[in-house]
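Hey, can you fold this one?
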Amino acid sequence: MKLIIAVIQPDMLNQVRESLVAAGITRITVSRCTGRGKATDEETLYRGQTVAPTLIPKIRLDIACNDDFVDTCVQSIMKAAKHGEKGAIGDGKIFVVPLEQVYRIRTEESGGEAI
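Sure. Predicted structure:
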């Protein structure tokens, strides 16, 4: 089992969600977040003080899936979250993290069946 964490631009959420649903992945968690990546704004001087670059609004997707669905999920996100043919700075990141155990509270199922 894996936990896929994707950080994407807010305007791409509907495309990514539709792409995941088309691939058979319907169980996702969506959160609004802010952050900074490699895209840099120079530090600016405001009233004599150095001001750090501002944080940019992003969307975080958390998807728990069985090992068989990892590639399908990652490819669906990458295709849908990219701006244009070549992509743009700030399109996002995808992290794939091992998931040790999952429990469904209602039925007390665990492991792959709980996903």
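The first strand starts at residue 2 and ends at 8. Let me know if you want another pass with a different chain boundary.
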